[in-house]
């Protein structure tokens, strides 16, 4: 059976500062680096040797993957980067402090923007500090100016189907190092999580989620490798 590990990046500087990060390329904190290393140690202890690692183009995910592979003693694993594994785009909320935003717009509205499945935040205004349209990593791409989790899934799923799933169906083991919401999109797809329940699914930072899949890429088993930091998982069908 093919084996898949999903690894959310370690704590970032803006995680620590409680800011909406999205596509902003912030780095890991010292704690985040420790989480990445710990994730790699757990991967090694579990005997997982991926044939390939997929990651986003954002440094916090790429560095987490690289540090995990190094800690696991896996130096020659091919790495494939793609922006479609980026974090959810937080639109006009990008860079804002979450508590201050709740004070300004009300906790209920911010909760809807953050946790609802299909209601995106206001779009990001063009030409500002966080305008990603001039970033060469996205040249020629029709990139969003805001995203809900639903919209995030709509860009992650085609990439999953075209790039990641074929490797798993070929019998390869795969590591995906990405972000809370891009990984939640994959979890929603794999576990067929209903729209109203995916809002309660959290992916902890730096804790590898080890999933065994059958030939149809349906989960047979799933567990977090660090049991002390595990979150509830969707039920297996």
What is the total number of structural domains?
A: 1
Report Rg. 17 Å
CATH superfamily: Phosphoglycerate mutase-like
- Helical stretch tally: 8
Question: For the residues shown, what is the average pLDDT?
Answer: 95
Which structural class do the helices and strands define? alpha/beta
Give me the side-by-side strand order of the main sheet.
Answer: 3-2-4-1-5-6
Helix content: 25-40%
Q: What distance separates the N and C termini?
A: 17 Å
Just name the CATH architecture.
3-Layer(aba) Sandwich
CATH C-level class: Alpha Beta
Uncertain segments: none
CATH-derived topology: Rossmann fold
Number of strands: 6
SSE arrangement, N to C = EHHEHEHHHEHHEE
Beta-strand residue fraction: 5-15%
Largest sheet features: 6 strands, mixed
Outline: globular
Topology:
Elements: E1 3-8, H1 13-16, H2 30-45, E2 52-55, H3 59-71, E3 79-81, H4 98-105, H5 107-115, H6 149-169, E4 174-178, H7 180-191, H8 195-198, E5 209-213, E6 219-224
Parallel strand pairs: 1-4, 2-3, 2-4
Antiparallel strand pairs: 1-5, 5-6
How does this structure look, described?
It is a single chain. With 237 residues, the protein is α/β, with parallel strands linked by helices. It has one domain (3-229): Rossmann fold (3-Layer(aba) Sandwich). 37% of the residues lie in helices and 12% in strands. The protein has eight helices and six strands. The chain has a six-stranded mixed β-sheet. A hairpin with a 5-residue loop joins strand 5 (209-213) and strand 6. The relative contact order is 0.21. The record marks 179 as: Transition state stabilizer. It catalyses: (2R)-2-phosphoglycerate = (2R)-3-phosphoglycerate. Keywords: Gluconeogenesis, Glycolysis, Isomerase. Substrate binds at residues 8-15, 21-22, 60, 87-90, 98, 114-115, 180-181. It comes from Brevundimonas abyssalis TAR-001.
């Amino acid at each position: 059976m093919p084996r898949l590990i999903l690894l959310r990046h370690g704590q970032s500087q803006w995680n620590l500062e409680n800011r909406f990060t999205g596509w902003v390329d912030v780095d890991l904190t010292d704690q985040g680096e420790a989480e990445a290393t710990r994730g790699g140690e757990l991967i090694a202890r579990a005997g997982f040797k991926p044939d390939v690692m997929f990651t986003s183009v954002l440094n916090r995910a790429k560095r987490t993957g690289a540090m995990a592979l190094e800690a696991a003693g896996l130096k020659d694993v091919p790495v494939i980067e793609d922006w479609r594994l980026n974090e959810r785009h937080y639109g006009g909320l990008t860079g804002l402090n979450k508590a201050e935003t709740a004070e300004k717009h009300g906790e209920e509205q911010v909760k809807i923007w953050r946790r609802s499945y299909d209601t995106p935040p206001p779009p990001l205004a063009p030409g500002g500090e966080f305008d990603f349209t001039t970033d060469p990593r996205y040249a020629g791409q029709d990139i969003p100016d805001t995203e809900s989790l639903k919209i995030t899934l709509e860009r992650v799923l085609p990439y999953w189907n075209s790039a990641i799933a074929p490797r798993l169906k070929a019998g390869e083991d795969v590591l995906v190092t990405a972000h809370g919401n891009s990984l939640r999109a994959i979890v929603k797809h794999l576990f067929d999580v209903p729209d109203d329940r995916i809002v309660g699914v959290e992916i902890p930072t730096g804790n590898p989620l080890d999933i065994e899949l059958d030939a149809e890429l349906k989960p047979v088993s799933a567990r977090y490798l660090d049991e002390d930091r595990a979150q509830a998982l969707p039920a297996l069908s």
